[in-house]
């Protein structure tokens, strides 16, 4: 990892994640009964849970409004979940005041245009490998993995490894 990136990773205290295309592969499944289903990656969830248990702060900001996202967040230990968001920057700025964290201490992983305003404000803008080109162009960290396929795990592991180099 480049030295300037290590410095950024070393200061991260809060990780904010989008859902569709980040924690999932972006696909949405509908049953005949009208139930919406999404697939989450167990390895991504493991890394989020590991970091929440170690005291890292996490949040989810998503335009989606399905209850399964809140349940998945609860399972991972994520206490701050913002659903049905149309203006992610407004939610982000309000949340920053609530938790009193400098945006430079924030990693945000997004994959689409709605994420751009927040990605441009944080210290560590990140995205999955299959994010749209406009998002990739503003990100300091582009995962080797697609959304829902380990991108979040890779980000969490990188933060952990920089901040805890002697701990597995």
3D structure, described in words:
The protein has 168 residues and is α/β, with parallel strands linked by helices. It has a single domain, classed as Rossmann fold (3-Layer(aba) Sandwich). 38% of the residues lie in helices and 15% in strands. It has a six-stranded parallel sheet, with helices on both faces. A two-stranded antiparallel sheet has the order 2-3. Helix 2 runs parallel beside helix 7. The radius of gyration is 15 Å and the shape is globular. The relative contact order is 0.21.
Which properties best describe this structure?
168 residues, alpha/beta, Rossmann fold, 6-stranded parallel β-sheet, two-stranded antiparallel ribbon, 15% strand
Number of domains: 1
How far apart the termini lie comes to 18 Å
Tally of individual helices: 7
Q: Mean pLDDT score, rounded?
A: 94
Contiguous low-pLDDT stretches (5 residues minimum) are none
- Cα radius of gyration in angstroms: 15 Å
Summarize this entry quickly.
By secondary structure, the chain is α/β, with parallel strands linked by helices. The protein has helices at residues 3-10, 42-53, 67-76, 88-99, 116-119, 133-136, 151-163; strands at 14-17, 29-30, 36-37, 57-61, 80-82, 106-109, 124-127, 141-142.
């Amino acid at each position: 990892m480049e030295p300037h990136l290590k410095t950024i990773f070393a200061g991260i205290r809060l990780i904010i994640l989008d859902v569709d295309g980040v924690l999932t592969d972006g696909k949405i499944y509908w049953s005949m009964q009208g139930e919406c289903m999404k697939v989450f990656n167990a390895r991504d969830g493991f890394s989020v849970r590991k970091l929440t248990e170690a005291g890292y702060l996490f949040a989810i900001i998503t335009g989606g409004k399905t209850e399964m996202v809140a349940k998945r967040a609860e399972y991972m230990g994520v206490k701050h979940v913002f659903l049905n968001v149309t203006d992610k920057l407004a939610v982000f700025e309000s949340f920053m005041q609530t938790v009193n964290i400098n945006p430079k201490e924030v990693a945000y992983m997004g994959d689409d245009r709605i994420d751009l305003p927040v990605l441009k404000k944080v210290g560590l803008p990140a995205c999955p490998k299959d994010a749209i080109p406009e998002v990739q162009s503003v990100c300091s960290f582009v995962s080797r993995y697609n959304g829902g396929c380990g991108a979040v795990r890779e980000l969490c592991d990188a933060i952990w490894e920089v901040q805890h180099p002697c701990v597995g």
